[in-house]
Amino acid sequence: MKFPFGLFVVCLVAGLWPAAKAAAQTPRSLANEMVGQWELATAGRDRACVVTLRNDPVPLGMKVEFEKGCEEVLPFTGAIASWTVKGLDLVRFQDERGEPVIDVTEVEGGILEGVRTGEGVYILQNLVAARALSKSSDQMIGDWVMVRGNGNPICGLTLTNNEADGPENFQVFLKPKCDPMVGRFAPSMWRIERGEMLLISASGEVWRFGADDHAQWRRIPDSADPFIMVRQ
C-alpha cells in the first residue's frame, strides 16, 4: 500500500510545527525573562544605576526607565529610548531611531555583558543579585590570613571598608612578615566583582579569588599548591 504523498507532507509539517513554534517563541521568552529591575554598571561597579525594563510597547521596542541620576553616572543612558531582543540571546538598548546604544548578551545566569567602544565593559545584572553582592562585600571586612594548600600561613591581611580609588574599591593592609611573593605583589585595594574577590596592587596587578565550599577563597586559577584566604 502506497503512502499518499500529500498526507506525508501534512504529517511532516505537523511534526515540525512544534519545534518551529518553540524556536519562534525563544526571543519572546528572553524578553519575558528580562522584564523587571536591573543594575547597569561598569565592570568594576564603580558607577552603577537602576534600570527598569517593561513589556509596554513603544516605538521600535519596549519601554525602559532609568532611576534619577543615571544619565550623570552613565552618560550614554541619556540616548536610550527603548529596549528589544535581537536574535536568540542579544538584548539591545537603542535610541529613538532604533540604532544600538549598547548590546548585551548573557555570560552567566542573570548577568549580561556588553562593550562600548572607547569606554569598556558594562554589566547588566538582576538588581536583587547585585545588591546581595554588595552586601557580601560588608561580610568580607576584617582580618584574614593567606595560607598555602598545606595550611601554612604566608601573610595576614586586613580588609577594610575605607574607599580607595572609587566607591567599589576598598583599602587592604598587609600585616608584618609576609611571604616575599605576597610582599612584592603588595595589594593596596580589594573589591568583590561578579562573585570573585579581587586583590589589586598599586601597579594594577590583580589576584582573583573564588569562594569554595568551606567559606574560604582560593586563588584563580587553582593549582596544586594554591593560595587560600581564610578568615581569622
Helix content: 10-25%
Shape category: elongated
List segments where confidence is low: pLDDT < 50 over at least 5 consecutive residues.
7-28
The number of helical elements comes to 4
Q: How many distinct beta strands?
A: 16
Name the beta content range.
over 45%
Specify the biggest β-sheet: 8 strands, antiparallel
Q: How would you characterize the overall build of this protein?
A:
By secondary structure, this protein is of the alpha+beta class. The chain has four helices and 16 strands. The chain has helices at 5-34, 70-73, 127-140, 180-185; strands spanning 36-42, 48-58, 61-66, 82-86, 90-94, 100-108, 111-116, 120-126, 142-147, 153-163, 170-174, 187-193, 196-201, 206-211, 217-220, 228-231. The strands form two sheets. The protein has an eight-stranded antiparallel beta sheet with strand order 3-2-1-8-7-6-5-4. Strands 9-10-11-12-13-14-15-16 form an eight-stranded antiparallel barrel. Residues 7-28 have low confidence and may be disordered.
Summed up:
This protein is α+β, with helices and mostly antiparallel strands. The chain has helices spanning 5-34, 70-73, 127-140, 180-185, and strands at 36-42, 48-58, 61-66, 82-86, 90-94, 100-108, 111-116, 120-126, 142-147, 153-163, 170-174, 187-193, 196-201, 206-211, 217-220, 228-231. A hairpin with a 5-residue loop joins strand 14 and strand 15 (217-220).
Tell me the layout of helices and strands:
Elements: H1 5-34, E1 36-42, E2 48-58, E3 61-66, H2 70-73, E4 82-86, E5 90-94, E6 100-108, E7 111-116, E8 120-126, H3 127-140, E9 142-147, E10 153-163, E11 170-174, H4 180-185, E12 187-193, E13 196-201, E14 206-211, E15 217-220, E16 228-231
Antiparallel strand pairs: 1-2, 1-8, 2-3, 4-5, 5-6, 6-7, 7-8, 9-10, 9-16, 10-11, 11-12, 12-13, 13-14, 14-15, 15-16
